Amino acid sequence: MNRPEPHEIGVGLLAALAFAGIACLPLFDDGYYLSLGVNIVMYAALCTAWTLFSGPTHYISLATAAFFGIGTYTVGIGIDTLPFWLLVAIAAVLSGFVAALVGLATLRLSGVYFVIFTLGLAELIRQIVTWVQTNFTTGIGLYVFTDFTETHIFWMLLALTAAIFLTGWAINRSRLGFAMRIIGNDETVAAHVGIDTARAKVLLFVVSGAFIGVVGAILAPRFAYIEPPSAFNPMISFQVVIMALLGGTRRLWGPLVGVIPFTIVFDAVSAQFPNHTSILMGLAFLAVVYLIPNGITGWIETAYARLRGGAAQPAGKTRWIA
């Protein structure tokens, strides 16, 4: 692993100060703004975890809802008998295991085939969970009662977001990160130079899925009552993709730029038009893809390069800089 450069240390210190400032939010508000803050850090964690895999590979994964639901249901099933933190660890292992199985089966696919398969995964798991609860339990939903408050959940998600980001930063500077950048730019070339492309993609998909499962586990106490339609809601997958693409996936921190404005705007708009959420999501996706295909960060980089008289980075290239 390469040693951090001086400017990276400075950026890291600024990020740490920002992190400390954000962590103080519950001290000033415990109502609407704290609830909005929980939503923002939830999607920040999900989008950053999603970008760990989809950023360098350019594979659009819609399996987020599947891993999220696995984490949520792990806590819901075991909360009466096992400690919460043990359940969080189990959720990470189970989500990572499912990601490994899916990765081994599908990562040889590409394009729309991979997208369709990952979208169907969440629906398949939802139907299995619904069938099991309908036929072998007394009800479809699960109650999750803990002593955690909204403040506790906010702090846990914020810490998890930082952990995911640091993991991505470390991967970016490792041999795996180097291999993934080559795979993302040209997978055929990567295979020809001796990179085990399947192994690298599966490994990163497992890391991404495990983190997403942990997000679901941490949020289970917030829901109090969970059921398959909410835990495995495909809207979660679509929102994560839109936010990540809005911010830009060429940099690890790019999705964070998209999470904050999208969450705030979507929260306000969905409150005014609750019956038109799906239509709004579709319009948002089309707008992002056609108007800013490289995301906000990509647009800023292109504009900055033009101002300096340099060439903008090609859209197909992935630059993961924390």
TrEMBL record:
Entry's transmembrane regions: 9-28, 34-53, 60-79, 85-105, 112-132, 152-171, 202-225, 231-249, 256-273, 279-300
Localization (cell): Cell membrane
Superkingdom assignment: Bacteria
GO MF term set: branched-chain amino acid transmembrane transporter activity
CDD domains linked: TM_PBP1_LivM_like
Keyword presence, Transmembrane: yes
This protein's GO CC annotations: plasma membrane
Keyword presence, Ribonucleoprotein: no
PROSITE patterns, per database record: PROKAR_LIPOPROTEIN
Keywords: Cell membrane, Membrane, Transmembrane, Transmembrane helix
InterPro entries: ABC_transp_permease, LivM-like
Membrane topology: Multi-pass membrane protein
Name of the protein in its database record: Branched-chain amino acid ABC transporter permease
Species for this entry: Microbaculum marinisediminis
